[in-house]
Amino acid sequence: MFKLFALIILVFSATIVSIYSLSVADINGGSIRFNQYINKKILVVNTATGNAQANQQLTELQQLYQQQHDSLVIIAFPSNSFGNEPGTNAEIKNFMQATYGITFPIAAKSWLTGDSANAIYKWFANKQQNDVMNAKTEKDFQKFLIDRNGNIIGRFDSSISPLSSIILNAVQQN
Fold first, then answer.
1. Closest CA to 83 of 122, 139, 18
2. How far apart are CA 58 and CA 51, in angstroms?
3. 11, part of any domain
4. Does residue 7 form part of some domain?
5. Consecutive 10-residue runs of the chain (174 residues): their mean pLDDT?
6. DSSP state letter for 109
7. Does 1 reside within a domain?
8. Which domain holds residue 110?
9. CA pair distance 65, 145, nearest whole angstrom
10. Which pTM does this prediction carry?
11. What is the DSSP letter of 108?
12. Residue 43 domain-assigned?
């Protein structure tokens, strides 16, 4: 009887949250509402313009977006969580757009870890909310891929190129 009661409590204590119910501030002072991306895959990437990988990663992210924009949205999340993004929102936006021609959405600069993390990264870090994993973000340019139904289907280390076959295959699969 106790095991059954404990199981019932566990089932009802898990609070799965749809990514489509979340929103974050964008770099222009507006908001990015994830419900506008229903039926598209979403690649969430934490960025830092001062990181040694910024040139390759941002160049390839823009190329990936240009190739797949009909079925994929990329959202950049600038952060100084790892000490590589000292710029303001305006500086980050100007640099990313002028240097790399970034046309995909850019969130406002925010924290990715701890109590101050933005709503999306808190969601990634909480399996009870996302129903997949407790994903701790540990470096710049880590990537999360969300399927067309709002489920996490991939987590990619910063060492993985945005144009790698592993990411391209994941993006192109139904």
1. 139
2. 11
3. no
4. no
5. 48 77 96 96 97 97 97 97 97 97 98 94 95 93 96 96 96 85
6. P
7. no
8. 24-29+36-172
9. 13
10. 0.91
11. P
12. yes
